[in-house]
């Protein structure tokens, strides 16, 4: 029994990687890129989030092959200003060129 549990524990990380759910790193890269492009269109320089946390993903109700994922991201809007944290939601799915992010909104905390 202990061997079966140990074998299962070793297999779980590999199975999680195949689930189609984005990792926290993938989510961060996609959300940062989206945020950078949106802010630069407004003339605001954005480098990166100070903190980014994946909070979880669920199957999208209208598109079960896609995932709606929740995250919290903190950053300083301008040097010297206090850090701002937003809770966001995005849709993630695998497209022809890899993982795709669609912004479903963010709310300041």
Low-confidence stretches: 1-18
Overall structural class, as computed from helix and strand content, comes to: alpha+beta
Q: Which sequence of strands runs across the widest sheet? A: 1-2-3-4
Q: Which percent range describes the beta-strand content? A: 35-45%
Average pLDDT confidence is 84
The helix count comes to 2
Largest sheet properties:
4 strands, antiparallel
| SSE string, helices as H and strands as E | HHEEEE
Number of strands: 4
Radius of gyration: 17 Å
Multimeric state: single chain
Distance between the termini: 46 Å
Tally of domains: 1
Helix content: 25-40%
- Choose one word for the global shape: globular
Topology of helices and strands:
Elements: H1 2-17, H2 24-41, E1 51-59, E2 67-75, E3 84-95, E4 98-108
Antiparallel strand pairs: 1-2, 2-3, 3-4
Describe the protein's architecture and organization:
The protein has 109 residues and is α+β, with helices and mostly antiparallel strands. The protein has one domain. The chain has 2 helices and 4 strands; from the N terminus they run H-H-E-E-E-E. It has helices at residues 2-17, 24-41; strands spanning 51-59, 67-75, 84-95, 98-108. It has a 4-stranded antiparallel sheet with strand order 1-2-3-4, with helices on one face. Strand 1 and strand 2 (67-75) form a beta hairpin. The longest helix has 18 residues, at 24-41. Mean pLDDT is 84; it is low at 1-18.
């Amino acid at each position: 029994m202990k061997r079966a549990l140990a074998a299962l524990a070793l297999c779980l990380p590999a199975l999680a990687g195949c689930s189609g759910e984005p990792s926290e790193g993938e989510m961060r890269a996609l959300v940062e890129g989206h945020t950078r492009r949106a802010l630069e269109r407004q003339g605001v320089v954005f480098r990166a989030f100070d903190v980014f946390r994946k909070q979880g993903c669920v199957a999208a109700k209208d598109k079960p092959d896609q995932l709606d994922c929740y995250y919290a991201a903190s950053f300083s809007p301008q040097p010297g200003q206090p850090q701002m944290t937003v809770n966001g939601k995005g849709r993630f799915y695998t497209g022809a060129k890899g993982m795709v992010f669609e912004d479903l909104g963010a709310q300041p905390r």
